[in-house]
Amino acid sequence: MKQADTTSAGMLHRLDRWMYRGGRPNRLARVLNRIGAVQYAHRIAAPRQAVTLEVVGRRTGKAISFPLVLTPYDGQRYLVSMLGEHTNWVRNVRAADGRAVLRSGHREPVRLVEVEPAARAAILQKFLELAPGARAHLPVDRTAPLAEFERIAADYPVFRITPAPA
Fold first, then answer.
1. 56 in helix, strand or coil?
2. 79, 70 in Cβ contact below 8 A?
3. Euclidean distance between CA atoms 77 and 35, whole angstroms
4. Cα–Cα distance between 90 and 113 in angstroms, integer?
5. CB 99: neighbour CB atoms within 10 A?
6. Residue 1 resides in a domain
7. Range of 48's domain?
8. pLDDT tier for residue 125 given thresholds of 50, 70 and 90
9. Strand, coil or helix: what is 99?
10. Which residues pair with 135 in a beta bridge?
């Protein structure tokens, strides 16, 4: 019989999984995401790599905000979907042809370019180093070899942040 993880990290991972059962945020997660988006956008007690992504909703046409972790890797900046392909922000970014705004104390119009699955593994590994809250959602340990990240790379979209066209 598997023993329950009663450490604080283990309990947080269980809470994270509960808040995003089925890959979608429950009511509590939606409220916390709204708070996080405002907090990150205005740099109020926000982690250094925290940003708010603003993208036009594919159905409503209204700007929607998501708190995310910016992942620097090899001189570039990236955004990673910890819940995989079917998250709203990923669908909205694709529908908007990558046009979005990053907020982290200031507004930065950007274009997000999706990274091919073959090039995602090292970025995913770096993401897990920076985003402890995401560790419960990716099925690999942050210390796993790169080959383990290559195995899951196709399931977790990664977008490279580029300047918005003039």
1. strand
2. yes
3. 24
4. 11
5. 15
6. no
7. 8-163
8. very high
9. strand
10. none
Neighbours of 78 (CB within 10 A): 23
What the block records as the tokens of 96 is 């908007």
Six token digits for residue 151: 């195995």
- Count up the domains in the chain and report the number: 1
Say which CATH number the domain at 86 has.
2.30.110.10
Would you say 119 and 132 are in contact if contact means Cβ atoms under 8 Å apart?
A: no
Task: Please state, in angstroms and rounded to a whole number, the distance separating the CA atoms of residues 121 and 115.
Answer: 10
Are the C-beta atoms of 54 and 64 separated by less than 8 Å? Answer: yes
Identify the CA nearest to 63 among candidates 36, 88, 81: 88
Two tokens at 34?
A: 């709204």
pLDDT digits (tens, 9 = 90+) for 2-54: 445 556 556 555 766 676 776 677 787 777 767 766 666 666 655 678 899 99
Strand 107-114 and strand 76-80: the pairing is unpaired
| Coil/strand/helix, residue 49 | coil
Residue 43 is predicted with a pLDDT of 64
Query: Does residue 3 belong to any structural domain of this protein?
Result: no
Structure tokens at 152: 């899951």
